[in-house]
Design a protein that fits this description.
Length: 438
């Protein structure tokens, strides 16, 4: 067996090459031409919809925002204008430039009133019934050949497409918040998504100066599927005796800009994941208890941490400790001390494992695409190349051994993915191209 980890390219060099490679898409007809997009209709004027609209306006496009009430449209317009406030303060934009962008924004309260468009982007709550209702309506009123895109971060694109009579026009455009700032665009190709639809998505990504990564359909796609595998262990370790601050500190020591609990508080993740569990029927004892207590994150002044007015610095909160202790006692768990290395292993190794499963299932086209998703959308430290680059740098035999050790102590969540074992046996790498699978 040959260990190939010593022949890896430098981490940052690899990360840059991976971004360039992400634009190369398999199974697209070379003559697939994008739709000519000058106008986009965005459905939903919440934080995500407003961020998407801001990015589109920055790119010089005409945008119509659809909301249910005039008051909601007014609030959305104010939020969009506010998205440029920092740039104006720093001298990067003028008020005249903001006004020019706002002149290209219009609003409607009924989709039938929207001007003809070749691209519709739905950005409502992560609720399958609501999304299906919107797409059934879009299939009726959108011009022939228009691209019908959902900003869903987890849901089945094929199930959404199935309620239309034109599934070839349906695609996932998963923007990352704030959508006018974050570079990543996860482009979700459904079973029947046409080459023209995909070409349009890539053309849009280029116009918005985004980095597109084309992925397949599964729950959570690439980014959030790996995110869920990581954060499942975060919740388990809270019950075992770790504190939110201890886990967050371990992740920042590894190189992330913030840990999972600070991130949830900042992004509204407590409410978002609670809503998602209502869709799936799953439960999370700690997350559900925090939601019930109104601890929704920074905006509420309390989440996994508490926050002083006007200050985003997280402060440990005895109320959270008490909530976790009650749940731990009911479950009959005796708390223990966890080391920083154990926390890192139990957070990072499941990410590698899930990445290998995603590759084996063909959800990602190549290992480096997974790395681009996490490098540009989730703050993976660039000095560690990417999830799969980091696994290769450890050596896959070592990854498998450490997963087996964790499996023996903590169960099937750590069972090594078959692809990892196959590649480890061959002395091969995840980042080899073409991908070695069978």
């Amino acid at each position: 067996m040959t260990d190939m980890s010593d022949s890896l390219p430098p981490a940052r060099e690899y990360a840059g090459a991976a971004e360039a490679l992400a634009w190369t898409i398999d199974n697209v007809a070379p003559d697939a031409l994008p739709a000519d997009i000058g106008h986009v209709c965005v459905i939903g004027g919440g934080q995500m919809g407003c961020g998407i609209a801001t990015a589109l306006l920055d790119a010089g496009l005409q945008v119509t925002l659809m909301e249910t009430e005039t008051a909601n449209l007014e609030r959305a317009a104010a939020r969009i204008r506010a998205n440029w406030a920092n740039r104006v303060r720093r001298g990067q934009m003028s008020e005249a430039e903001v006004d020019e962008r706002m002149e290209r924004l219009s609003g409607v309260t009924d989709l039938a009133s929207a001007p003809p468009s070749q691209l519709f982007i739905e950005a409502v709550w992560e609720n399958m019934a609501l999304k299906k209702q919107i797409f059934a309506r879009l299939a009726e009123i959108a011009p022939a050949g228009a691209v019908l895109a959902t900003n869903s971060s987890t849901l089945d694109i094929d199930a959404i497409a199935a309620v239309t009579n034109r599934p070839e026009d349906v695609i996932g455009l998963h923007f990352f918040s704030p959508a006018h700032v974050m570079r990543l665009l996860e482009v979700v190709r459904g079973e029947k998504t046409s080459g023209r639809c995909l070409a349009t998505a890539l053309d849009l990504a280029r116009a918005l100066n985004k980095v597109p990564v084309v992925v397949g359909v599964c729950f959570g796609f690439v980014g959030n599927r790996i995110f869920a595998a990581r954060d499942q262990q975060a919740s388990v370790m809270l019950l075992e005796g770790a504190s939110p601050a201890q886990i967050d500190d371990a992740m920042t020591q590894f190189g992330f800009p913030m840990g999972p609990f600070v991130l949830q508080d900042m992004s509204g993740g407590i409410e978002l994941t609670w809503r998602l569990r209502q869709e799936t029927g799953e439960t999370d004892a700690i997350g559900d208890a925090l939601y019930a207590a109104g601890r929704l994150g920074q905006r509420a002044g309390k989440g996994y941490y508490c926050y002083e007015p006007g200050n985003r610095a997280p402060l440990s909160d005895p109320e959270v400790d008490a909530i976790i202790a009650r749940i731990r006692d009911r479950a009959g768990i005796e708390p223990r001390a966890l080391t920083q290395q154990e926390i890192i292993d139990r957070m990072i190794l499941p990410m590698i494992n899930e990445a290998a499963r995603i590759l084996d299932e063909g959800i990602a086209q190549r290992a480096s695409d997974i790395d681009v998703v996490w490098n540009t959308g989730y703050g993976w430290p660039l000095d560690k190349g990417g999830i799969t680059w980091f696994a290769d740098s450890m050596g896959l035999p070592m990854v498998v051994r450490r997963l087996r050790d964790l499996e023996s102590r903590h169960g099937g969540h750590f069972t090594p993915a078959p692809l990892l074992e196959r590649l480890a046996d061959r002395g091969a790498r995840l980042t080899e191209l073409p991908q070695v699978r069978r």
